[in-house]
Design goal:
about 100 residues; alpha+beta; two-stranded antiparallel sheet; 2 helices; 2 strands
Length: about 100
């Protein structure tokens, strides 16, 4: 029986165009705020899973990241609200870049 040699994955980076286009302030707010909320929820679930395994675990790094994201959400809201007050639409170009960790 012949064994086939596994080929190494040559492509180590993937880019996904997650969001691209012009949006009203309401649409932009919905997109941006919900993306950030999803990331915050991801970290909260991650923190809970770690805590369930060890109630004395240190989740400071996750807590810091959640606070950073909460701040970014408020900064985005302020930016979008300023655009809304000026009657301006917003362009969003969000590319998700994924690379193989080494």
């Amino acid at each position: 029986m012949k064994t086939k040699e596994l080929t190494q994955i040559e492509k180590t980076t993937q880019k996904i165009q997650l969001v691209k286009g012009e949006f009203t302030p309401s649409e932009a707010s919905h997109i941006v705020v919900n993306l950030i909320k999803e990331k915050i929820n991801f970290h909260k679930i991650q923190r809970l899973q770690i805590w369930e395994g060890n109630h004395k675990c240190n989740t400071d790094a996750i807590d810091v990241r959640i606070k950073e994201l909460e701040k970014e959400k408020e900064i985005a809201r302020e930016f979008i609200n300023n655009s809304r007050a000026l009657g301006q639409n917003l362009k969003i170009d969000g590319v998700l870049k994924i690379t193989v960790a080494e």
